[in-house]
Structure formats: C-alpha cells, structure tokens
Amino acid sequence: MKTVHVIDKDFGLYIPQEKIETSIQTVADQINRDMDGMNPLFLVVLNGAFMFASELFKRLTIPCEISFVKLTSYSGTESTNVVRELIGLDHSLDGRHVVVVEDIVDTGHTMRYTIKKLRDLKAADVRIATLFFKPDSFQYDYPIDYKGMDIGNEFIVGYGLDYDQQGRNLPDIYKIIE
C-alpha cells in the first residue's frame, strides 16, 4: 500500500486520482444537464474545494460564473461544529441560481450555515456539489444535489483536502492509518 506522512500522521492510499476525475466528470455531466440555460453562479468554498472546482470547471459546457468564499469548521482532524467565515461573498445573489462547490460534506454544519446565508441573500435556489460525502456523519436532511462519491468516516487528505494545512497538493486521496 502506498503511504504518505503528513506532519505527525501516516496515511494510506484510498482513492486514486483517476477515480476522482471520473467522479468529477459524472458531476459535471449532471450539472450541464440540470442547469442548462440558467447561468448559475458557482460559489467555491476555499481552501479545500479549489482542486475539485478547477477540474469541474474544465468540464462545464453551460454559461456560468464563479466566486469564492472561505469558511472553516475544522481544527486538526476534528470538526469544531462552529463555522467561521474568513472571506465573504462579493456578488449579488438576488434571483440567482447558486451551486455551492465543496470538497467534502460530513456533518453538514458548514453547508447548513451556507444555505441559510444564501437564502437570506435571496438566491433563487441553492444547490450543493461536493466531491466527497460522508452519509454516516451527515446530521441534516437537506439534499446534496451533486455528489462525486460517498465515503466512510475516515479522515482523508489530498486533492485539496488537508491536515492542518498540509497534504492538499497530493493528487490522490489518502486515509489516516490508525
């Protein structure tokens, strides 16, 4: 098994880049079909979703716009359950179709916060596109409209996801070795 060492932890190969890219193509195909003619605004949640967003945008064929926000709810390998907004939205959302692009949805706290905020800003509709979804950790009932793949509750790094800001540059996904 291919392993990497990030800060003070070891991680084993979990999902190779090729499988990630196939999942991104599936998500792009669904969005292209569902949002044809809508000119959606894609709101990318930094830092983790930058690689997913980059690959997703290469595959979108519909007219669309992109903007970025920076939110955080993690410290180390654990969710704090408190969402902090570090960089805010700079577009009017009144009547816009918005797709929030996230690297991973686990408990759902960050997306719940984001959905409420976007609805308060009068978005016509809010959809969620995530590369990874942890159904066993998810604590809410709002829909995840576009999912690259479901995963277990393992802590993962790579492809934009980090452990204390390290490991984002790995082209594959690695899970923590306990």
How would you characterize this protein structure?
This protein is of the alpha/beta class. It has one domain (3-176): Rossmann fold (3-Layer(aba) Sandwich). The protein has three helices and ten strands; from the N terminus they run E-E-H-E-H-E-E-E-H-E-E-E-E. The chain has helices at residues 17-34, 50-59, 109-120; strands at residues 3-6, 9-15, 41-46, 65-75, 78-87, 97-105, 125-133, 146-150, 156-157, 173-176. The strands form two sheets. A six-stranded mixed β-sheet has the order 5-4-3-6-7-8. The chain has a four-stranded antiparallel β-sheet with strand order 1-2-10-9. The longest helix is centred in the first third of the chain and has 18 residues, at 17-34. The protein starts with a strand and ends with a strand. The mean pLDDT is 90.
